[in-house]
Structures are given as structure tokens and as C-alpha cells.
Amino acid sequence: MSHIVDQLFERGFVHVPGFLDPEETEALAQDYRQGQFHRTVYTLGHATPEAIELIGDKIRALLTQFEDVPQFKPSRFGGGAYFATEKGINFGWHQDHESYFINQTHQHYLNIYIPVIKPEREHTNLCVIPIDRFKERSPDAWSVLEWGGAATAKTEGGQTTISNDHAGGLHAELDFELEELCETPELVAGDALLLRGDMFHRTQDNDTERVALSVRAFNPDITVVKEHYEQNCPAKRWFQANNPMYGAITEAFAERDIMILSELMMSMFNARRAREQAAQNQQHAPQKNSLPQDNLPQNKEK
Ligand SMILES: [Fe+2]
């Protein structure tokens, strides 16, 4: 097993210094500066396909390390998004939500997190809870959380509660502050932090203007089912109400109860293209046909 695979199983994350060379890093920083932004539940910078392709070979080479690892096999990656503190990115402890709603598991899911603008090594990193430390401190809680997602950890009076933001209720109550287990890999622009999808993480601080590219790799052959998608709770419904992507998922599952992830993603992709096309048509339509603009989704942090 390679060092990277080994570390992902043992600790859940790996720091790869100098993953990108300075030219690639600068090209991505430039892509962000010239960029477009998606505003759904929070504001993300859109990485252009051309910019992602600049580093495509490096990511493909990285993913070959998982070819013979049946328990963790992210084999394909999609687009990328820029997480920028200047756009209000500052999250508390959580396991990612939306990727879990789509993939329905975080097994076979890898977050490739690459700061491209990072003025200070020791600030504005990503804090993580290493899996070995979580498992050692609270094996029962970790057994519930492993490969999962859509969870938020809140600490009060020395206790931590971990909410299930997919189906409601609590995943776990811990008699310590999750923060005690925190580690913060210090990154410079061009480094990569590889993270399993089930890692608890938070923004270290938003004191500096950091921009990080996040590319997500997944396994297109896993099965997704309507029953999982239809489970919900107020937190999940809030995401669904604020991102039109979920309408496309609902439609895909209206026709079929079970499919493979790549089929679901194709439906989502087609629906997005149709939305973009409709928006373009609307832009070019005579003014009197325009819809009011105040019904656009609000930009909120989760
Ligand atoms: Fe996250």
C-alpha cells in the first residue's frame, strides 16, 4: 500500500507539499481572480475546465494509487471550486453535507484541497480531527460516523454534540470538546491536503485572504437509492431549498428507485445545462418577459 493510501486509512488525511509547481499554482490563482462565482448555499468560485485540465494529469496520476484498493476507490474527478475567505467561507466543525446527499456515502470520496493564494503558512488553514485520534478517544462514536457525512459538531460546557443533518437527531454525544483532538497541517500555496470525505474539519481562521481550490474525486460506479435521498430533516431541507441542483435529483429519482452514481450525475449535469440555457434565453428575451430577480436563492453560510 502506498504511503498516501496508508495515511488515508490510518489518519484520514495526508499533506503533500509542493503538489503543484509555481506556474500551475499561479495559473489557478489567475483563474480564480478572473472567475465566476456560484451562489447557492454559499459562494464558491467556479474553476474553469481549462484550469482544471492544466493539473488533470497530476490528479489522474494520484488516483491511480487507489486502483487496487477495493475499500477506497475514488477513480473519477469532476470540476473544481474555489473556497475563498473574502467570499465569507468560515465553517465550524462538520463533515461535508452536499457531497453526502449526492453520493450517499463518503466511502470512495476524496477531497483534494489545494491553496492557490495563501499569504501566511501558519494562518487560514484547514483544521482536521485525525481519524486515529477520534477512534482512540471515542471508538463507539467513530464507528457510527465512519464513511458518513452531513454532520455538525457543537461544543458547549466541555461536551460535544454531533447532529445528523441528513436524517435528523444526534449521531453522538461526546464528554469532551472535539477541539482537543484538532490538528492543523500548515500549508503553502501549491501544497495539497488530501482528505477523506468523512473527516471532521473546520476553517482555522479567516484572518488572511486565502483561496483554496477543492477538487473532489468519487467512484462513479457506486449505487445510489431513492430511499436514502428521501430521508430528510430541517437541515437537509434547508440545503434543498437553496440549491436548484436538488430539483434535478428529485426528478431523477421520480423515475427510478435505484441507479449508479454516474447516471445520477449525468441527470444533474443535463438539468444544469438546461437551467443555464434557460437563463441565457431569458437574458436575451425582451425586458417585459423577464422574471423578477428577487427570487434568486440567498447566499448563506450553513
Ligand atoms: Fe467542508
Structure description:
It is a single chain. With 302 residues, this protein is of the alpha+beta class. It has a single domain (3-282), classed as Jelly Rolls, CATH 2.60.120.620. It is built from eleven helices and 15 strands. Strands 1-11-6-13-4-3-2 form a seven-stranded antiparallel sheet. The chain has a four-stranded antiparallel sheet with strand order 5-8-9-10. Strands 7-12 form a two-stranded antiparallel ribbon. Helix 6 (131-137) packs across helix 7 (139-145) and helix 10 crosses helix 11. The longest helix is centred in the C-terminal third of the chain and has 24 residues, at 261-284. The protein is globular and about 60 Å long. Residues 91, 94, 96, 201 line the site of fe (ii) ion.
Write the layout of secondary structure elements.
Elements: H1 3-10, E1 13-16, H2 22-33, E2 36-39, E3 43-46, H3 49-54, H4 56-63, E4 76-84, E5 94-95, H5 98-103, E6 110-117, E7 126-128, H6 131-137, H7 139-145, E8 151-156, E9 159-164, E10 170-174, E11 192-196, E12 201-203, E13 211-218, E14 223-225, H8 226-230, H9 234-241, H10 245-255, E15 258-260, H11 261-284
Antiparallel strand pairs: 1-11, 2-3, 3-4, 4-13, 5-8, 6-11, 6-13, 7-12, 8-9, 9-10, 14-15
Helix pairs in contact: 6-7, 10-11
Bound molecules: fe (ii) ion.
